[in-house]
Every structure is written in structure tokens, then in C-alpha cells.
User: Fold these one by one.
Assistant:
Number 1:
Amino acid sequence: SQQGEEDPQALSIQEGENATMNCSYKTSINNLQWYRQNSGRGLVHLILIRSNEREKHSGRLRVTLDTSKKSSSLLITASRAADTASYFCATDASSYKLIFGSGTRLLVRP
Amino acid sequence: DAGVIQSPRHEVTEMGQEVTLRCKPISGHNSLFWYRQTMMRGLELLIYFNNNVPIDDSGMPEDRFSAKMPNASFSTLKIQPSEPRDSAVYFCASIQGSTDTQYFGPGTRLTVL
């Protein structure tokens, strides 16, 4: 079964708005990563947050991690049409193995 | 730098045929992963190689699937015989050393008729 589950499954927003996606997982982790997948393309790594971190920023991205609730959120501020993609969280099931969630499909309307 | 390269990008074949997917990892990366992505099951790890050695093949669905990595710059995933339920997008990813970030190729979209 999948380790991470994203919520919502799909999100549609207007350009300029903020987009928030959530990820819940089941077991203890060392780190959690977020990846983006544009239609018909491979996944691209966005950001990694370690279990001892609570928040991390990268450009317009902000990730939070709550290990007590086994959840993470990805916030994209001031969204652009180019942010339209699917977003996946991935947790480390072992030293090399990542378990990917089911993804959130984000549509940013111009 | 060139990223992970996969070929072919699209493959359409008939049930029972052999299919070979190819991957060239990023130069210097010593670990390689094969994934399969479907709407129903999401992204699943099929097999993991480290320094060209298969470490974990527990995700390989059945004996019809096999993977090799003859050298650090090339890997293949073979399906023989192929079945319609093998239709999916197959991704290859690589990492360097013990880092956590995986670099994905563009994928091969396989359709088995």
C-alpha cells in the first residue's frame, strides 16, 4: 500500500493565488520529499525536508512537516500557469526506497 | 549535463511480444531505479541497482519481467511475453552516492494491445 496520500486529489486555482497540498504518511521517516510531474514527463525533485525540521523554504515553495501527525504540506505562493502539474510526496521506506503518494493534480488557470 | 535518458519514449506492441526498455543514468550516479506508473497503482518501484548490482527486485511483478545493468551507464528492463496489463509508463531514475534526491528520466509509455 502507498505510504503517502495526498489531499486534495485535484485542485484548481486562479493564477496569483496560493496552492496548498497535504500529504499524510503511515510510518516513521527520515525525510520527506516533494516532486512535481508535468504531463507526459518524469518527476522533478522540488524540496526535501528532514524529520528534525519543521519548515523549509525554496523560492515560492514552503514545506512543513509535522511528525507527530505524520503529515506534511506544500504551499506554492503566487501561483503561475506554469505550476500546473501533479505534485507527489515521497517518504523514505528504507535507505534507498521511496514510497510515493497518489499525487495532487494542480491546475492554475490564467 | 544530460539528464537520465530513456528509450524508446513510446512503444506499442502486441500481446505476447518481447519489449525492451532502455535507460542511461546520469554520469557518475551509482544507483538506478526502475518504476512503473499507472492510474490505478500510482508509482511503484520495480527494481533497484547499486553499483550495477540488483539490490531489491521485490517490486518486479512476475517472472515475465527482468532487468539488467551490464555497466554503470546502461540498464534494460525486459518484459517477455508482454500482456495488456503491462501497459503503463515506465520510469528510470538515478542517484549519486547516498543522496536522497532521485533524478527521473522522461519515461517510456508502453501500450500492449
Number 2:
Amino acid sequence: GAVVSQHPSWVICKSGTSVKIECRSLDFQATTMFWYRQFPKQSLMLMATSNEGSKATYEQGVEKDKFLINHASLTLSTLTVTSAHPEDSSFYICSAGRVTGELFFGEGSRLTVL
Amino acid sequence: SQQGEEDPQALSIQEGENATMNCSYKTSINNLQWYRQNSGRGLVHLILIRSNEREKHSGRLRVTLDTSKKSSSLLITASRAADTASYFCASLGAQKLVFGQGTRLTINP
């Protein structure tokens, strides 16, 4: 089956720094990528939808200047958490969509901001 | 809230019993999907049911969909300890996949 790779799988950073998370579709071209955030024991909340070559569409309440999304190619999308604070600590998961509509999820990236 | 509801929020049963989880969603959908998540891990896709389907089977899984009630159910038959996980429904509509709140299932040996 199709594989979506996320990197890093976990990261610890100091408050005020920026962290970049990569999401790659390894064996297919992803027309659309989605970024989700999941707090402990809660469900996945959609943060934004990114389409290759265009600006991401953010969900209500998600700060686009805080969570920068770049979808520079059909196989790579990045999420940068800028000036991270402890409340940004969470599990971030990406998913990549094929033109057929199938979605494949990465293994997630756990961010801890000290 | 973008999310639908799932019930129960937590379910604990004995190994061998059947587990049923329900999910409701809010908008029109193209399809509804069920996922499993082990603690701290990514999502595993279990089964997809299209909006024009009413029931679907895959191994020990049975999914139903009632678009008039905007609801779906997932039945896991003959549960095993390895089925312990969180289960989420996710509705695909308007090119977005929106997740329910999830059911934490515990299978006791």
C-alpha cells in the first residue's frame, strides 16, 4: 500500500523556537495533503488543507502565521510551528490524498515544547 | 465544532464478545471511513463505506451507514485482546476528512 512518511517522529524544543515537520508521500503523487493535530486522549482536529503550488486553506481558529504550511511539490508538504510555546505541544499527523480520493496517513510527529 | 459524535466514548468488554461503536456526522458526505489508532501511533485505515452503500463487511468488521440519520456503526465480532485501541470514524465531504471524537475500546483477556 501507499506510504506516507513523517519526519521527525518526535521533537523536543525550547519555547520560542520554530519547528519544521515534513510529510512525504513515498510512492505516489499527492494532490492534497491535510494536517491534523491531536491532543492526548482526544480526536484529530483538522488544521489545514494544502494543495500543491497554492496557499493552504486553514480551518477556523487555526493561526496561519503560527502554523506555516508549504506544499512545494506533489510529494512533500511541510508544517512549521513558529515561535512554539508549551501549549503547541501535541501530536501532529499528516495525510496525503491520491487523485482517486484515497487518503494515507503518516505515523505522526510528537512535539514537546519546554 | 467540526467534529461529529461517537458513542460510547469508552467501551470495555471481554475477549470473544462483540463490540459495537456508533458515530454521527454533521454534513453531507461522499464516504465514511473507520480508523484505528494504537496509543501514540498513527492511524490505520480499517474500512470505507460510500454514501450509496448501507452495509459493508471486511473480515471481523461490519460497518453500516444510515445517511438519513447521518450515522454509522462499526461492529467488531469475536473481539481479541489485540483489538484494544481507539477507533475513529471520519466523514469525507467537501474534500475534507473530519474525524469523530473516537471510542476507546479495551478488550479484557
